[in-house]
Structures are given as structure tokens and as C-alpha cells.
Amino acid sequence: MSFHRITPAELGREDVYRHFMEDAPCTYNFTAETDVTHLRAAAKARGAQFFPALLHCISASVNKFREFRMSFDAEGNLGYYDFVDPCYTVFHENAKRFSDVWTQFDADFDVFYARYREDMRQYGGAKMKPSKPYEGENLFNVSCIPWTSFTGFDLNLQKGYRWLPPIFTVGKYFEREGKLVLPLAVRVHHAVCDGYHVAMFLRDFQERADRF
């Protein structure tokens, strides 16, 4: 895993970057309804759990777009990672709280799923946060709220105006007109990610879910 430093000018959008990073710091949240009918059925047919299948589709789409792999290094330099790994929440029913676990991404779902299951075996029961020690900064977050659906979700970070990685929140899927609809919210930084980029991500995610 490598971090590649890049200047705002090399982004090809220095004016936009400086406006939304310095003049008018801006992050935004975007919620979309996604069709997971095929994804759920295909995961079940493969003997896999639904959530890691969903997590793999999200992660594959995140890694496709540089805008979703942007970050700052320890010295505050702007750049992007070769790849990023998902860090996801694990709910503990008895304690009514959550911890988080991360799993190294692989484009091959079977490889990723094996890693996910091993991570859950080792760290899924741990209630501290984080439960699995971090090995790098190339992470993005995925939270799941499986008890309720939503049409809008806003995540507000008091000190988040220099947080560039996307943050996803998944809601409870529901049936509508014979399809399973899942709300997917993402929080991004406008300095590096416009509505266009979110739309391209969502299109790619849906295509992956439809062919899983």
C-alpha cells in the first residue's frame, strides 16, 4: 500500500479544492435507494452472508475512484492511496454498543470473504474500539443500522473539515414492488468529491450488485 502525494493543481481542480477546503469548508451527505434484490439472492446462493457481500461491492466501487481514496498523510500532505480497506461496525447485542473491525480488501470476493470471516472470528466478539489493531491509515468507514430504514442520513463531524475519506451508512432494506430496496448514505468532502463523483460511484455500485 502506497500513499501518493499530489498538489491541488495536479488534481485538475485547484480552484474548487481551495474554495471548499479554505474559503468555504464544505462536506455533504448524500442518501440513495439501491436495489439489492439480486445481491441478496446471489450471496445466499453462494452460501455467503449478505453484509460482507454488500461490503465487498461498496469497497470495490470505492477503490475504483481516486476521489474516494483521497486523504492527508501524517505531515498534512494531500494525496491518495493505491487501495483502501473497509472498517465496519459490529454490534454487540448484550452490551447494546458497537466496536469496529477492518478487513483487507481484495477484488476477488472469495478471498475477501475468507478474510472477513477470519477477522470476525478473531475480533468480532471484542467490545473495545477498535477491536482489530489498525495497521495503516488507508481505511474508510461503513456503519450499519439494520433496525430501521431511512430516506436521509446526515453525519456531522465537528472537526471533520479535513477528513477526506468517504463515510458510509447502510440502513435496513425493505421490499417494494417485488424489489429489495436498501438506503445507502455517504458523507464526502466537496473539496475532492462532487455530486458527479458520488453519482458515478452509485452507478458503479449498482452495476456490481446486479452482477454479483
**Number of H- or I-type helical stretches:** 6
| Share of β-strand residues | 25-35%
Low-confidence spans: pLDDT under 50, at least 5 residues?
Answer: none
- N-to-C series of helices and strands: EHHEHHEEEEHEEEEH
Distance between the termini: 26 Å
Helix-strand makeup class: alpha+beta
Helix content: 25-40%
Overall CATH architecture: 2-Layer Sandwich
CATH-level-4 superfamily name: Chloramphenicol acetyltransferase-like domain
How many discrete domains?
Answer: 1
What is the gyration radius calculated from CA atoms?
Answer: 17 Å
Features:
single chain; 212 residues; alpha+beta; seven-stranded mixed sheet; three-stranded antiparallel sheet; 28% strand; chloramphenicol O-acetyltransferase activity; CAT-like_dom_sf; Cmp_AcTrfase; Chloramphenicol acetyltransferase
Provide structural commentary:
The chain has a single domain (3-181, 204-211), classed as 2-Layer Sandwich (Chloramphenicol Acetyltransferase). It is 33% helix and 28% strand. It has helices at residues 8-11, 14-23, 37-45, 50-64, 109-123, 195-211, and strands at residues 3-5, 27-35, 70-72, 78-81, 85-92, 97-102, 139-145, 167-171, 174-176, 179-189. The strands form two sheets. Strands 2, 5, 6, 7, 8, 9 and 10 form a seven-stranded mixed sheet that branches. A hairpin with a 4-residue loop joins strand 5 (85-92) and strand 6. Helix 4 packs across helix 6.
